[in-house]
Specification:
Pfam families: C1q, Collagen. This protein is of the alpha+beta class and 286 residues long. 12% of the residues lie in helices and 27% in strands. Strand 3 and strand 4 form a beta hairpin. It starts with a helix and ends with a helix.
C-alpha cells in the first residue's frame, strides 16, 4: 500500500512541474540554418518565487552500523539481588585426593563378642605342678538308695493290669509311681520284693510281674474268714526295668483292705548295686 501512495505522489509532482514550465516558456524563436557566432550571455534574472512543497519521497534504506565506541568507565555496584531458587543437583564429580589424617576420636563402646575362632595348635606340655592338698572323702553320698512300701485303699482292683497301690508308706528315691502302680529301677543290682495281701469273700490269684513276665505266682483259697496271701523274691534289675503286682485270674480277686481292720501291702528295696556300675558312678564324682 505504501508503494501505491509513493507512485501517486510522484505523478502529482511531475504534472505540477510541467504546468509551471509552460507558464514560464519564452517566446518562439526563429531558427536559421546559417551559422552565427554565439551571443553574449544574458544578465542574470532574479530568482523566482519558491515552488510548492513536493510530496514525501520513498523512505531510504537503513544506514550501516557505526563503529564500536570506546569502553566506558565502570559503573557503581548495584544492589544485591534476591537469592534465586536452588538449582538441580549436578552429576557427581570424580573423587578428590585423600585428605590429611584427622585427629584421633573418642574411644567407642565395647562391641558384641565375636564368634569362636578356630582351634589353635596344641601347645607344649607344661611343667608338673605342685602336689595339691588331699581331699575329703564323701563316699557316703555315692551310695545309691532305693526302697519303697505302699498300701492300697480300695478292695477288689481291676484284674490283669498293674494294681495301683495308692497309699505311700515309704518311698526312698521316689522310684515307685502310684499313678501306674509300677516300680521303676534306677540303679542296676539285686532287689528284694515282697507282698502281704489280705483276702476276703473270694479266692486270690496274684503274681509279681517283671517287664511283663510273671516271676512268682501265689494262689490262696478263701475259707470264709479273712486270710493273708504273701510272697517274696530277689531279682536282678537293669535301669528302667519295671516291677508290679497283678491279679492273673478274673474270678479270683479276693484282695481286701479296710482302714480300721486290715491292709494289703507291696514292698521292695535294693540289696546292693552292680559293682561295675558303682565304680563308674564313683569316677564321675572324682
Amino acid at each position: 500500500m505504501w508503494m501505491l501512495v509513493a507512485v501517486a505522489c510522484l505523478c502529482h509532482c511531475v504534472s505540477a512541474h510541467l504546468s509551471e514550465t509552460r507558464l514560464k516558456k519564452a517566446p518562439d524563436l526563429v531558427y536559421s540554418s546559417v551559422p552565427v557566432s554565439p551571443g553574449l550571455p544574458g544578465k542574470a534574472c532574479p530568482s523566482g518565487p519558491p515552488g510548492a512543497q513536493g510530496c514525501v519521497g520513498i523512505p531510504g534504506r537503513d544506514g550501516r552500523d557505526g563503529r564500536k565506541g570506546e569502553k566506558g568507565e565502570k559503573g557503581e555496584t548495584g544492589l544485591k539481588g534476591r537469592v534465586g531458587a536452588p538449582g538441580k543437583t549436578g552429576e557427581r564429580g570424580d573423587p578428590g585426593p585423600p585428605g590429611k589424617q584427622g585427629p584421633v576420636g573418642d574411644k567407642g563402646d565395647v562391641g558384641l563378642p565375636g564368634g569362636p575362632g578356630q582351634d589353635g595348635q596344641k601347645g607344649d606340655k607344661g611343667k608338673k605342678g605342685n602336689r595339691g592338698i588331699g581331699g575329703v572323702c564323701k563316699c557316703g553320698s555315692l551310695l545309691p538308695k532305693s526302697a519303697f512300701s505302699v498300701g492300697i485303699t480300695s478292695s477288689h482292683p481291676t484284674e490283669k493290669v498293674p494294681i495301683k497301690f495308692d497309699k505311700i508308706l515309704f518311698d526312698e528315691g521316689r522310684h515307685y509311681n502310684p499313678e501306674t502302680g509300677k516300680f521303676i529301677c534306677a540303679y542296676p543290682g539285686i532287689y528284694y520284693f515282697s507282698y502281704d495281701i489280705t483276702l476276703a469273700n473270694k479266692h486270690l490269684a496274684i503274681a509279681l510281674v517283671h517287664n511283663g513276665q510273671y516271676r512268682i505266682k501265689t494262689f490262696d483259697a478263701n475259707t470264709g474268714n479273712h486270710d493273708v496271701a504273701s510272697g517274696s523274691t530277689a531279682i536282678y534289675l537293669n535301669p528302667e526295668d519295671e516291677v508290679w503286682l497283678e491279679i492273673f485270674y478274673s474270678d479270683q480277686n479276693g484282695l481286701y483292705t479296710d482302714a480300721g481292720q486290715a491292709d494289703s501291702l507291696f514292698s521292695g528295696f535294693l540289696l546292693y548295686v552292680d559293682t561295675n556300675y558303682f565304680d563308674t558312678l564313683a569316677e564321675d564324682y572324682v
